[in-house]
Design brief:
The chain is mostly beta strands. The protein has helices spanning 45-51, 75-78, 130-133; strands spanning 11-15, 21-25, 34-37, 41-44, 64-66, 71-74, 86-87, 93-98, 101-106, 115-118. The protein has one domain (7-136): Beta Complex (Beta-clip-like). Strand 1 and strand 2 (21-25) form a beta hairpin. It binds zinc ion (ZN).
Length: 169
């Protein structure tokens, strides 16, 4: 029957004001709905680093999902719509790790037309140079936006460097 052709997912991918493509609810979504599995090629962190050279990217835009210390899912080649979920600091979904498989589930009531997001909380190993931080700027527009899609580490006492005027331009 024709009704079977109605979107099997309660969302669609289209342009987003947050960044690039986003995923939008097509109908009301209740909390705790499993929306989609984040699929892709499973690779190691080393392989991911070889594939994507952070230093030469203007903005962090790969479709990588960090599963654990060993594995990363690269949805860049064989991924599904899960890779289009944007980050928000005030998300309506979350990524759930179930035995190494990643699912995106709703955590709030979402009205039709609203963009579906989750908190990426990217962890970067080691200290991230200031110029690379720019790739992780957050543009989610949430009232409590923390300004970055990186995971916030517990605030340390700021040992602020004295402001020096750099001669480099
Ligand atoms: Zn934000």
């Amino acid at each position: 029957m024709a009704t079977e052709n109605i979107a099997k997912h309660p969302f669609e991918v289209r342009n987003s004001v947050i960044q690039g493509s986003g995923v939008f609810a097509l109908r009301r979504i209740r909390p705790e709905q499993r929306l989609i599995e984040y699929v892709g090629e499973r690779i190691t962190h080393d392989e991911a680093n070889e594939r994507y050279d952070d230093e030469n990217m203007e903005r962090h835009h790969t479709f990588l999902f960090e599963v654990d210390e060993e594995n990363v899912i690269d949805a860049g080649r064989v991924g599904n719509d899960a890779r289009y979920f944007n980050h928000s600091c005030d998300p309506n979904c979350e990524a759930v790790n179930e035995g190494g498989r990643i699912y995106i589930e709703s955590i709030k009531n979402v009205q039709p037309g609203v963009e579906l997001t989750y908190d990426y909380s990217y962890e970067h190993i080691g200290e991230l140079p200031e110029e690379l931080r720019l790739q992780y700027l957050c543009l989610c527009g949430a009232e409590k936006c923390r300004g970055t899609i990186l995971k916030v580490k517990k605030p340390r006492k700021s040992r602020r460097k004295s402001t020096k005027t750099s001669s480099a331009k």
